[in-house]
């Protein structure tokens, strides 16, 4: 779990700038990313730490040979909002992980491989796979925390960072996780009263946020963020992940 909840300053920043998103809320199933990135103070999802998350997840998917039924479960999106069911939309931890899943889902077979292989590993352990496929929300999300945290931990360990480098990366991942939790809270809490009072607020925007609140209704935390915040902790277990740490 995150070592601290999202700060009030972060929440207030999101609340006071949500009007940017309210005035340009998505009208179709594919969410528009720009307003939400502005809320988080981001210009893109391509910072160095976010690229690390992307590469760690993609590497983990290939090395473990995650099967397509698990990928299909993890990449489901809500028809009304386009938001992922298993990841927090616009979260700076979730989006690199989710995009890695989408890239892996579209992977071709290895050229020249007589067996038609598309990945390396044998698949995830049965118990972990079952939890990822589960329709029970808390059980499913706990498994997501394990795989994201485990893949990040292995990737970071393979980089052989110095103690100082590990500490700096830990701080970066913690900050991203704080922002992700703040984004989740903005969906659960809904639009601020001052935004709702705007006479020009489109009804489609109100409907969009009502739908978003439904997507994440039973969430208490962001599982990817919780996993990322523990990735640099060498004492944290990888639990059901193949090969341990």
Tell me about this structure.
The protein is mainly α. The chain has one domain. The protein has helices at 8-22, 34-39, 48-64, 68-74, 94-105, 126-133, 137-159, 163-189, 193-196, 203-215, 223-229. The protein is globular and about 60 Å long.
Question: What's a concise summary of this model?
Answer:
By secondary structure, this protein is mostly helical.
Number of contiguous helices: 11
Helix percent reads 55-70%
Task: Provide the succession of SSEs.
Answer: HHHHHHHHHHH
Low-confidence segments, given as residue ranges, are 14-28, 32-37
* Head-to-tail CA distance between termini: 18 Å
Tell me about the largest β-sheet: none
Task: Provide the residue-averaged pLDDT.
Answer: 83
How many strands in all? 0
What's the SSE blueprint?
Layout: H1 8-22, H2 34-39, H3 48-64, H4 68-74, H5 94-105, H6 126-133, H7 137-159, H8 163-189, H9 193-196, H10 203-215, H11 223-229
Helix pairs in contact: 1-8, 3-5, 3-7, 4-5, 6-7, 7-11, 8-11
């Amino acid at each position: 779990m995150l070592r601290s909840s999202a700060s009030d300053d972060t929440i207030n920043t999101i609340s006071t700038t949500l009007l940017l998103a309210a005035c340009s809320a998505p009208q179709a199933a594919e969410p528009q990313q720009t307003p939400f990135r502005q809320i988080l103070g981001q210009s893109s999802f391509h910072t160095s730490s976010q690229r690390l998350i992307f590469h760690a997840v993609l590497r983990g998917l290939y090395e473990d040979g995650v099967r397509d039924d698990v990928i299909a479960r993890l990449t489901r999106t809500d028809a009304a909002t386009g938001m992922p069911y298993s990841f927090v939309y616009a979260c700076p931890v979730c989006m690199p992980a989710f995009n890695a899943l989408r890239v892996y889902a579209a992977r071709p077979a290895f050229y020249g491989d007589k067996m038609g292989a598309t990945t390396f590993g044998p698949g995830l352990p049965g118990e972990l796979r079952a939890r990822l496929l589960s329709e029970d929300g808390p059980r499913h999300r706990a498994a997501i925390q394990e795989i994201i945290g485990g893949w990040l931990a292995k990737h970071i360990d393979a980089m052989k960072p110095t103690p100082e480098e590990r500490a700096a990366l830990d701080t970066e991942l913690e900050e991203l996780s704080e922002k992700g939790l703040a984004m989740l809270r903005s969906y659960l809490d809904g639009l601020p009263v001052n935004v709702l009072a705007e006479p020009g607020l489109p009804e489609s925007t109100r409907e969009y946020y009502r739908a978003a609140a439904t997507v994440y209704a039973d969430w208490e935390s962001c599982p990817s963020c919780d996993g990322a915040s523990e990735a640099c902790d060498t004492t944290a277990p990888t639990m059901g992940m193949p090969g341990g740490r």
